[in-house]
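Box 3.1 — From sequence to structure: histidine kinase
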Amino acid sequence: MSPHALRTAWCRFRREGARAVTMPLRGRLALLAALTVAVAVAACALACWFLVRAQLFNSLDDALRDTSVQPRDVVDRLQSGQCSPPDRPAPNPFGATVQVVDVSGTSCVIVGRKLEVKQADIAVAKRDRAEVIHRSQGDGAGYRVRTTPVPGTGLAVSVARPTTEVDQSLRNLALILTLVGGAGVLGAAGAGVALARAGLRPVDRLTHAVEHIARTEDLAVRIPVEGDDEIARLSRSFNAMTGALASSRELQQQLIADAGHELRTPLTSLRTNIDLLVRSEESGRPLPEEDRRELLSSVRSQMTELAALIGDLQELSRPPGPAEGAEAQAAAAVVGLHEVTGRAVARVRPRGPGVTVTAELEPWYVRAEPAALERSVVNLLDNAVKFSPEGGTVDVAVHGGELRVRDRGPGVPESELPHVFDRFWRSPSARSLPGSGLGLSIVARTVRQAGGDVWLRRPADGGAGTEAVVRLPGAPVPPPDTPPGTGPDTPPGGGPDTPPETPPGTPPDVPPGAGESPGPTDGSGHGPGPGPGQRPG
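Predicted structure (token representation):
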């Protein structure tokens, strides 16, 4: 087998092995609890065993110190020949051992069994050390030995006791600790499983909810929130997410339904008019020239309205920028609101020949998208011009960061003011007029993306009409790096107060903007048709 085949087989084996040992989170938590308790129990058991062992040997050492051998008795026994030979054990009625050691390492057992002589014992006999306590072996058994010098002689006497009882006690203690520790580990594993089940129950509910949503696409599912812990925060976040998704889906469905409803009217009118024209051509009976012109004019108007509606839908369907508020303003360009408003006034004046548009514009610089901001201002002005009576006046003012557009039309009832910025909403009194009902929605969206606010209200003087107010954060002077007259929205060669250039072919005495088509507009800045929201309808 080639090395490459061997590596492939080894990698496959490792993958299969890793997959085989993978266990669910509940099992991993139980195993972790068991291992943690096992380590803790083992550490405690070892500490307990060593402490007991030290205490037992200390007690045995104290007993050896309490066992004293008189020097005269040792000397008398040696002189009387009562020292047992090395190969014959001496009588030992108490289980203790007494052994005499000289400076040469020769030993003589007085009582008990012969013990192994250590260098420490010889050092005591030579008077190099005053006392030693150590472990030794004798006939295969363990002993605890205490060696002390015999005064007036070159001898040392070792008193020893067997460690059998201590070793047996330690073995019994080790067995008990092992059984108790094992029971504790098993209990910890069981408790870990129970705790894992209880702790992961909210996660199981969340999992079932996610699976249910993935299976049924039912965004109305909500998870009960209990407490204020991490699981509760996760449940709240999930509920907020599903709520936002449900709201987004509802808005999407409403937008599709409203768009279909709004598209039906111009499409039906277009189909009817085109059918009449085609039928007249096919039947060989041409329509009167005046009727034909009216039909063609109606087709052109409906096509313009349809194009305006599609443009508005594209504008509203365009995803917002990466952020709103302060971040969006920091990423936008610096534009003069007074400049944008001046150009919008110049564009709208030709669309209402019988309406006077006055403008009082103070410098105010904001951060916004220039094209979108100008389109929003045009929407407001178109709306005001459309509903102003013949010979009426529309007042436009920029003062203190506020743009105010006041008309003298019929006004908006108080009950309809909360709905004027809804998509496709049109006032009942304006539904007979052309328009898409999206202009004010575009205005609200643009202003809020720039960090501002917009609303409609009754005029402060109590007169007729409606006043639209747009408030945008900014300053009366541009930032230091954007001097007046050089903003991105300034026309070429113009300053803040420079009027827009006259379109080519327009006579010099024609007011600025008169080169544009004076036909009706849709209020969204791109073609005929009335204003945004349609009075706002």
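Summary of the box: The first strand starts at residue 97 and ends at 102.
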